[in-house]
Amino acid sequence: MKFQYKEDHPFEYRKKEGEKIRKKYPDRVPVIVEKAPKARVPDLDKRKYLVPSDLTVGQFYFLIRKRIHLRPEDALFFFVNNTIPPTSATMGQLITTRRTIFSMWPTVMRVSMASEQQSPRHAGEMD
User: Fold this and answer.
1) Do 101 and 23 touch, CB atoms closer than 8 A?
2) pLDDT at 114
3) What string of H, E and C letters represents the secondary structure of 101-118?
4) Which residues of 86-125 are buried (b: 16+ CB within 10 A; e: fewer)?
5) Where are the beta strands (DSSP E) in the chain?
6) Strand, helix or coil for residue 70
7) What is the pLDDT of residue 13?
């Protein structure tokens, strides 16, 4: 799956922006949220979020569900690197794990949204 934000902004811009944000707000995590192409969920009013590093993925789910006015019976899946993160993990843990995996400074975390109607296996696939 291609990420629109990544296509719209070159790597150097994203790196510079991420470093600036992390320097100004060291206790926060910059997150880019993009809807999976075939997801049947409403569009978000914004895609950039700056969240506390101790915010859990479960709390972030709640925040996004509230922003898109998703009904309680509707499912929502987040994907980080083609994986559904545990709801008990903190956003800070996710970015630390990502930094270890890629051995580079992550500028942003990209999260894909997919609805229950879409297969979670295919919703988070990236190119």
Assistant:
1) no
2) 59
3) HHCCCCCCEEEEEEECCC
4) eeeebbbbbbebbeeeeeeebbbbbbbbbbeebeeeebbe
5) 28-35, 48-52, 76-79, 109-115
6) coil
7) 87
Tokens 């925040």 belong to 63
57-67 helix and 91-102 helix, angle to the nearest 10 degrees: 110
| Other beta carbons within 10 Å of 39 | 19
pLDDT score of 44: 84
Q: At residue 106, what are phi and psi to the nearest 5 degrees?
A: -80, 130
* Residues 27-76 pLDDT 10s: 998 888 888 777 777 888 888 889 999 999 999 999 998 998 888 888 88
Q: What is the pLDDT of residues 100-114, one digit of tens each?
A: 443 333 434 555 565
Q: What is the dihedral of CA 26, 114, 72, 88, to 10 degrees?
A: -40
- Residue 80 buriedness (CB in 10 A; 0-12 / 13-18 / 19+): buried
In the predicted model, what is the mean pLDDT of residues 83-109? 67
Six-digit token string for 125: 């696939």
Q: Is 80 exceeded by the pLDDT of residue 81?
A: no
